[in-house]
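Reposting from the mailing list since nobody answered there.

I have sequence plus structure tokens for a pair of proteins and want to know whether others read the tokens the same way I do. The first protein:
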Amino acid sequence: MGYFVDQLINGLTLGSVYGLIAIGYTMVYGIIGMINFAHGEVFMIGAFISLIALLLLAQLGVAAVPVAILVALVLTAVFTALWGFVVERIAYRPLRGSFRLAPLISAIGMSIFLQNLVQLLQGARVKPLPPVLTGRISLGSIGDHQLSVAVVQVVIVVVTVVLMAGFSLLVSRTALGRAQRACEQDRRMAELVGVNVDRTISLTFVFGAALAAVAGLLYTIYYGSIDFFIGFFAGLKAFTAAVLGGIGSLPGAMLGGLLIGLIEALWSAYSDIQYKDVAVFAILVLILLFRPTGLLGRQEVEKV
């Protein structure tokens, strides 16, 4: 039982990272109806920027770990958000009025471009990071098994909960959130009533990239190593999480991320780790057979 609880904690930690990335997918899809397949590479760029920021702060003598993480978080979010803005302006905005496959092809091309750009600039080798957050918090014991949780796992879950609550308030209570919901329902009508659609879409990409940046920082300090290819697998899992939870739903994206993290952790602990991805996608298919719109997705009504 104690081992099972340990795997639950590991799954929630991993699922929190997937959920943060998945929110970026679902926000963009909700507004423009397009899957941003370059979003995983934006997460990867955020991980590299956070690694560079943490190493530079260490060289500058910043010894306080909370200060270093906070500064690295701000720098990573700002620079990665700029990447998200540039990607939207170059790869998607010129094709917004084109046929539906054009932005999709552009997204795949941008994903390959960013992946190879980072490989050229940073090299193909794995980039390690010394442990930043160490220590564990004791949770008691179950029988002879001592339960504990790593400090970094607590930080990841807390940051995820805070950001999820913040973005839910952003969408439901602010002018930008109202503009996003208006664009989701009918972009043309939103533009007619005064909503700046281009600005709303650009800010959606910016906020999605900032969330991916936070996920990149958390991933880096949790695993301690990154490479130019992490965006592909993380992006694929996050996209799966968005579909599982219901593409277009913020709570659904987070729920899907947590479920995939739990499935991976429990399957790896109790079965063959090589087939954990098979288990994830098999469960996705089973759920979509009975819930085609995902767990929290809503049925779209086509206007005629």
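The second protein, same order (residues first, tokens after):
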Amino acid sequence: MSILSTRKADKIDSLAEGGTSLAMDALRRTFRSPVAILGLVIVGLFVILAIISPFIAPKDPYRPYPELQSELTPSNIPGPMPGFLLGSDQNGYDFFSRLLVGAQQTLFVGVFATLIGVTIGMIIGGLAGAFGGWVDSLLMRLTDIMLSLPSLLLAISIAALLPGSQWTVIIAVAMIGVPVFARLLRGAMIAQRSSDHVLAATALGVKRKTIVFRHMLPNSIGPVIVQATLTLATAIIDAAALSFLGLGDSDWRRAEWGLMLGNAQELLSVKPSLAFFPAIAIIIVALGFTLLGESMRESLDPKNRR
């Protein structure tokens, strides 16, 4: 009996291997695309910069310098000068060093906002897809309520209710992605219910927990990973939007691109580069994540499998 059960289990696993092979095939096709390679290069450079920026910044990004402060006036902010590649910001800090270190804080906000959104969304979507019935109906109605609100309006509402801090921005941006991830995983898991390996496991009397975690969830998580890549790009932009609207981090000294952009909006006529460089950095990084995510999505699309 045990030998027969082992053989049946092996048969179920072999039926599930199609999902793994399709995933590997999609991965190979993704990295044959020049667009995906460009996105990967941008993302890779951004991550490397975020890691090493505190070590390569020529000046302390959190200390004002007297030689810069002495040149500050309401109508003048020092530009490039010896020892300060991009000059000063509005507070006498080295602008170039703050721009470099800002990559780390921007990555921190984007990654944690995405991770929180993915985690909560997968819990909701996983429960809805695994149990169905009234659990599915209840959870999906909650996600419908969240989806009925414009994403930026939802983030603004959450940020306005909480005290201004970096974690407030992270939580507000994370909530935007929750209903998207929940519906995506729920739909993929419902599709898995009718697959051969899930039907075979159900016929053999395998416990629901084992079916969900061994057969359904691993084969449903691919689209979620792709969406997370795209969401990371929008998370960085949404965090910058909250800062620009004055609902971001209350610590103005923090070197983060969105916060730097928000603090520079009243100084465009004095020194436009204070807004120009953080904006360009945000655009390039968001473009990198978008190119990579879109390439991964197209590779997983059955219509593009040829």
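Reply #1 (J.P.):
I read it the same way you do. The two ends are 43 Å apart (CA to CA).
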